[in-house]
Amino acid sequence: MTLTKHRLALLTIAMTVIYFALFMFLPESVVGNRAESLLLYISKVMFLGMGASVTTASTLILIYKKEFIKWQMESFRRFKYLLRLLVKRDFVSRYRKSMLGVLWSLLNPLLTMLVITMVFSYIFNRAIDNFPVYLLSGQLIFHFYTESTTRAMNSVIGHQAIIRKVYIPKYIFPLSSVLSSLVNVLFSLIAFVLVFIVTRAPFHWTILLVPIPMLYTFVFSLGVAMILSSLAVFFRDLTYLYGIFTTLLMYLTPLFYPAEILPRRVLTLIGLNPMYHFVDYFRSLALRGVVPGLWANMVCFAFSMAALCCGVYVFMANQDRYYLYF
Fold this sequence. Notes:
Layout: H1 5-23, H2 28-31, H3 38-64, H4 66-78, H5 80-94, H6 104-124, H7 131-153, H8 155-158, H9 160-165, H10 172-198, H11 211-234, H12 238-251, H13 264-271, H14 274-288, H15 294-318
Helix pairs in contact: 1-3, 3-15, 5-10, 6-7, 6-10, 7-10, 7-11, 7-12, 7-14, 10-11, 11-14, 11-15, 14-15
């Protein structure tokens, strides 16, 4: 049977309904107490079902479109040197002609943390233990997402001269932007450890597992970056609108305030924010010394894979039309 777009769309919708029904009956040992927030639970299950169905649909594409996948992998191997060059160039150009250079990767999160700590520490000092570490842990994950997606949004437009002249897999450009931001956040982790030492926060062995939420954030950011870089070719005003969106998203993510102070309705809305789950996962490992359970991993995995699959589909479906809008 031929896997057409129409059949794939119908199959994805059917699988979403099936997954939703299955996940509704997960035991409370996995999902927690449903009675605490039934609306939040149903919303999470809905997004979880969508993520699982999109991932399943992508797996079917991998099975039925083997030749296309092999061609893409071969193309990636041919241009991987270019990817390394772009990542290196983006990282180096970020600090070109600055006196401190790469040290700004450490100073930026530290100085931002100091400013916000001076403003909000007196307000939330009693509600949050070790406020500087709490703030920086959320700031690292959120800044990684916003920086990578913002830089990637103009990556295709910024390389239109190259795209016009020679064939290059166009997804190389948003991928290089996200990888460059990943390198930057890895340097920022040094600042995070320094704050741990200075504030004498207790170290937990679970801090060794922080690459897991960073991987979830990387996959999610890459998916969003591919969507934004594709749409920005056709709609240039997206660059300005996205800045407003990230500001709103920052306040909907508990970066400098505890989520527990919010009303239940607002908390339900924040529970639908993927960044909230990635930040909370990171804090559970670094601050609380707790390894998140199966439910937390399922939610983070669903958000990240759904974003990646949608991003790849949107980018691949529109890349042949980019020439018309340069």
